């Protein structure tokens, strides 16, 4: 049985799902780096512990994180921020990164992390929880289908970076 207290849930195996707090940044960054390796872009991570501290715990945080902790080690993360729908006139949550260290998969940690974000949506009246997944990532796609997520057919993510971003500015 899972036991829940304010912003913290203890799973039956002793893992703890909770909001990120100062001091978690190194463990969060370890998960971000592991995700980058999994997604075949290990050199792409520019983030730092200091940047995470500012982003998550600075004066006006715009990004948030839930962590899965096992034996005082962060083994999973859900990093998210608010979106806004002009059509509904309400916020939603964008799940930027969901990751569970490989040796801790299959224990329900990923589902617990996504469920915690769904609970935030329901509690706050947000009608949407959204994210992207790489086309080749069949295990994640299967997981997302198993929890009831559906692809947004007809939508393709667009991005401006580097020289193109600067030229447009």
Write up what this structure looks like:
With 169 residues, this protein is α+β, with helices and mostly antiparallel strands. The chain is built from 5 helices and 7 strands; from the N terminus they run βββααβββαβαα. It has a 7-stranded mixed β-sheet. β6, α3 and β7 form a beta-alpha-beta unit. α1 packs across α2. 19% of the residues are buried.
What attributes does this structure have?
33% helix, 169 residues, 5 helices, 7-stranded mixed sheet, single chain, globular, 7 strands, alpha+beta
Short description:
With 169 residues, the chain is α+β, with helices and mostly antiparallel strands.
Number of strands: 7
Structural class: alpha+beta
Q: List the helices and strands in order.
A: EEEHHEEEHEHH
Query: Order of strands across the widest beta sheet?
Result: 1-2-3-4-5-6-7
Estimated radius of gyration: 16 Å
Low-pLDDT regions: none
By oligomeric state, this entry counts as: single chain
Helix content: 25-40%
How far the N terminus sits from the C terminus, by CA atoms, comes to: 53 Å
Strand proportion: 25-35%
Cα shape: globular
Tally of contiguous helical segments:
5
Compute the average pLDDT.
93
| Main pleated-sheet profile | 7 strands, mixed
């Amino acid at each position: 049985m899972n036991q829940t207290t304010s912003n913290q849930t203890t799973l039956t195996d002793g893992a703890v799902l909770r909001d990120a707090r100062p001091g978690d940044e190194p463990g969060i960054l370890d998960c971000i780096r592991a995700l980058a390796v999994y997604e075949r872009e290990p050199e792409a991570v520019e983030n730092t512990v200091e940047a995470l501290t500012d982003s998550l715990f600075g004066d006006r945080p715009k990004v948030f994180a839930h962590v899965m902790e096992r034996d005082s080690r962060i083994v999973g993360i859900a990093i998210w921020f608010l979106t806004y729908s002009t059509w509904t006139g309400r916020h939603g949550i964008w799940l930027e990164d969901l990751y569970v260290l490989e040796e801790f998969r299959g224990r329900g940690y990923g589902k617990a992390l996504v469920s915690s974000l769904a609970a935030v949506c329901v509690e706050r009246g947000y009608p949407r929880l959204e994210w992207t997944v790489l086309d080749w990532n069949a295990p994640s796609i299967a997981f997302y289908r198993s929890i009831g997520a559906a692809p947004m057919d007809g939508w393709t993510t667009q991005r401006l970076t580097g020289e193109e971003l600067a030229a447009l500015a």
